[in-house]
Amino acid sequence: MNKYEMLTIFSASLSDEQKDAIVDKYAKLMEKNGGKVESINKANPWGLRKLAYPIKYKSEGYYVLYNFECTAEVVENVVSLMRIDENVLRQMCLRKDR
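^ thats the sequence. predicted structure below, dont judge the formating
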């Protein structure tokens, strides 16, 4: 299993309860498929920020940084589900060096 880091930008129009629910949804999805979520950083310096350019007609986004360990298949599943989720503006997943 490899270590990964995923930065995700969620829609800022979500309520606090919805933001927490969607962040937990993807963390649980990683763990359900055999991964291990090491940390989720949704506080400073991340959180709600102004975007450099509009994405899907939105000018603000809620940034969340996931640090986790899993196989490549789990990453592919999570990324494909994030691509079709209308509340996810952008995501980028990188494998960490060992």
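The chain has one domain: 2-95.
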